[in-house]
Amino acid sequence: MAWRLFHMGLPHYPTSRRLPSASLRLCKLNGVCLVLFGGISMLTGFARDFNELLAIRFELGLAEGPVYAASSMLLTQWFVKAERGRAFGIWNVSVAAGGFLAGPNSAAVLAHDWRMMMVIEGLPAWIFCVVWFRSIPKSLQSTKWLSQQDPLPLEHELAAEQAAHKEGNTSSWIVVFKEPSVWMLMVGFACSQIILYGLTLWLPTIFKSFSGLSEMMIGVLSGAPFIMSMVGAYYSPVAQTSITRNADGTLPSPW
User: Fold this and answer.
1) 143 domain-assigned
2) Hey, how many other C-beta atoms are within 10 angstroms of the C-beta on 57?
3) Where is it chiefly localized (predicted)?
């Protein structure tokens, strides 16, 4: 039930995504979400009854909901179309890495107290929030790893891509559902989530049925499948980018 309410809170942001983006910059929105997510996650450790736990989990879903959509929009402002797939792949490695680290970390803390586990696992969001605000530049012009001449052509190419999208038929959002690629992505994402939460929820229970396994070993084994997810999330977009570049004849293959 707690998992259901958590995921009921996730979709509320994308349905009204234009409101925050008009008043807050995307990087600030992600930072606010990190603060809220960390605080609400730690608040789970102080739940006094089951109803409070359900309410907190729903609020946790609300706090996490904007992150994926806002980060996706942020990447479109930093990476051109030819590089965007690789950027998304590298970014999604963090999802699999989180699944891998969650098992042993939770097992180590759970050995002491589950409430303390919730409090400790909420702290990294606050720590990363500081890293986020200190590391993410305000604009392409303020980046430290680009020369003074690099941002201008990149901004022009990004602006041209956005202008091309605006010229299309966007009179109604229903047009989106007429695209076969959208349905393919929806089905693929749904299947991946079924597999993800099937592993997350039931794999530890399966390993626990075997005698002789410690809590730490169960956590490590439960996180092991996410190693392949990290490999696939990184190398699949990189390979696709390489194929696209070779087809265009723009750059040699990095392989």
Assistant:
1) no
2) 22
3) membrane
**DSSP-based three-state secondary structure for 147:** coil
Would you place residue 254 in the very low, low, confident or very high pLDDT band (cuts 50, 70, 90)?
A: very low
Contacts of 252 (CB under 8 A, 6+ apart): 245, 246
Integer Cα distance of 44 and 118 in angstroms: 6
Please name the residue that has the structure tokens 């790893």. Answer: 145
Cα torsion through 208, 211, 215, 216, rounded to 10 = -110
**Which domain does 55 fall in, by range?**
2-138+151-158+166-248
Question: 2 near 54, Cβ under 8 Å?
Answer: yes
Q: Which residue has the tokens 């925050």?
A: 20
Total-model pTM: 0.70
| DSSP secondary structure string for all residues of 28-76 | HHHHHHHHHHHHHHHHGGG--SHHHHHHHHHHHHHHHHHHHHHHHHHHH
Distance CA 9, CA 249 (A): 45
Burial 68-103 (b: 16+ CB within 10 A, else e): bbbbeebbbebbeeeebbbbbbebbbeebbebbebb
Residue 72 lies in a domain: yes
pLDDT digit string (tens) for 192-251?
778 777 777 788 888 888 777 887 888 888 888 888 888 887 777 666 666 555 555 554
Q: What's the number of domains the chain is made of?
A: 1
- Residue 254 inside a domain? The answer is no
